Amino acid sequence: MVASWQLAALMLSSSFAVAFGKTNEVTQVSLFCPKEGGGTAPNTQIDSQASGLLMSRGDTMLTKQSFASKLDKQTLEEEGDATVSGANQTVLTGQSQPPSTQRPLKCANESTTRSSNTNANTHEDAFDKVVRACLVAARPQQCLMSQIMTDAAPFYLADYDFGGSEARKYRWERPDGNRLVPLQRHGALPLRNGSVIHVQTSALEDFRKHVLPRVRVRVVLIVGMSRIAMNQYFKRFANVRCLKEIVSNSWVVHVFMQNPELHHVDYTALPYGLFWRSIVYAASHLSTFSKLEKTETWYGSYVSYSAHRIWRPRWWLQFSGKHKTYEQHIKSTCTTLFVGTPGGDRPDTYRTWEAIACNALPVSNIKSSMYRQLYGDDMVYTETESDLRSLLKMFENRTAGDAAYHKPVRQVLLTSWWQWLVAKAVQKNKGSPLQTCEEH
Q1: CA distance 139 to 233
Q2: pTM > 0.85: yes or no
Q3: What is the rounded CA–CA span in Å between residue 101 and residue 234?
């Protein structure tokens, strides 16, 4: 006898095919990569008003045939699971984004193809290899900071620096021993064509006023900082006006920025990454726990509230888990399919990238309209309390959670990938999108 949850899922998988006008899609999962000047990708959101489970992941879609096959295969073991019914079910709806807002992923290959296997964690990918090699290096922290995306990553992606007080204060060192060439507010600029400049977020306005007017060569900017900038404490998107003027400058070919505030063809979101201070500690736990079997569907990591955490709504606190040690937190994250990662003093947070490093999908309240360019389909966007409640209700059925899960692309946590992308930005024409559909 067919379970009621299976019938509902099969009926709604048919709705998926009708909604997108596709009934005979191939079942191969592949990465979406827009062609130059066109192409859109569906936007994954939670619609708490609709009913049924509608699978839409943009570049990773389960078609009617493949989804039904997956359900049939699971029925043997999951026949007795609870059903998901009526308004308590969750719908993932598809909405288009312009080409310039797409997450910059390489075209499909062995290292980036997504998997829906919830226990396919035994394969060692490029991220695992970097972590393992750095942990036995002579200087593990320096190795990890230069090869894994952290909040200090802009320092390792640039050649020149403006306002980089953090690098001097914390004495960050590059493996090659070279220091970033400092740029001064006044005087000659030692820039060459294709220079990559790190601009600390707190110095962005100063750069616009005093340095940008003197730039006369093609440059790429890397904007970010570990600590929060003063103008970001109690104001959201505090740098939009400044950024618009910077990207409109003909000499600025492209801008990469942590915690993005803008959509523009010459602008790309940059991961905030893991916390640089505890990167060795995090890496050692990841090497231990990231291969463990996924035994839980949901982990509501512990969160607190304070006035300066303007991106964290108070309603999220009721879904917070118990306080754990960092080791326990990483273990729970690595053994769970979906992890709660609400915004904090900025939208992008360490715990989000800890989840991705653990092959878990982060669930956050941040707006998909802005942050899809960074996370793509590797985040579940629950922008309201009802969205999150609907999602958690769906997760009461483990089979539904398994079907909604896919492994995130951990490649975006490698500094080498962003170095490659920055090099592509240096070569591109102003006003044209980054072309990432090729091997490197």
Answers
A1: 34
A2: no
A3: 26
- Please state, as a whole number, how many other Cβ atoms lie within 10 Å of the Cβ of residue 117: 13
Separation between Cα atoms, residue 440 and residue 420, nearest integer Å: 7
Q: Which helix (H) or strand (E) holds 64?
A: helix 64-78
Query: Does residue 116 form part of some domain?
Result: no
In a domain? residue 128: no
Same domain, 204 and 241: yes
Range of the domain at 53: 4-102+292-408
- Alpha-carbon span 354 to 376, nearest angstrom: 17
The answer to whether residues 88 and 156 belong to one domain is no
174 exposed, middle or buried (CB, 10 Å; 0-12, 13-18, 19+)?
middle
Burial of 334 (0-12, 13-18, 19+ CB in 10 A): buried
Select from 182, 179, 198, 199 the least CA-distant residue to 190. 182
> Are 422 and 382 in the same domain?
no
Q: Which of 114, 63, 119, 51 is nearest to 87 (CA)?
A: 51
| pLDDT per residue of the chain (440 residues) written in tens, 0 to 9 | 444 444 344 333 333 333 333 333 322 222 233 233 333 333 333 333 333 322 333 332 223 233 233 323 332 232 233 222 232 222 232 333 333 344 555 443 334 444 555 555 557 789 999 999 999 999 999 999 999 999 999 999 999 999 978 888 888 888 878 888 899 988 889 999 999 999 999 999 999 999 999 999 999 999 998 888 777 777 777 889 999 999 999 999 999 999 998 999 999 999 999 999 999 999 999 999 988 999 999 999 888 877 778 778 888 888 888 889 999 999 999 999 999 999 888 888 999 999 999 999 999 998 888 889 899 999 999 989 999 999 999 988 888 888 899 999 999 999 999 999 999 999 999 999 987 644 44
* 154 and 72 within one domain: no
Q: Do 87 and 16 lie in a common domain?
A: yes
d(CA 135, CA 122): 19
Answer yes or no: is 432 within a domain. Answer: no
| Cβ–Cβ under 8 Å, residues 126 and 387 | no
CA–CA gap between residue 97 and residue 104 (Å, rounded): 13
Q: What sections of 171-315 are H helices per DSSP?
A: 204-210, 240-247, 279-289
Within a domain: 112 = no
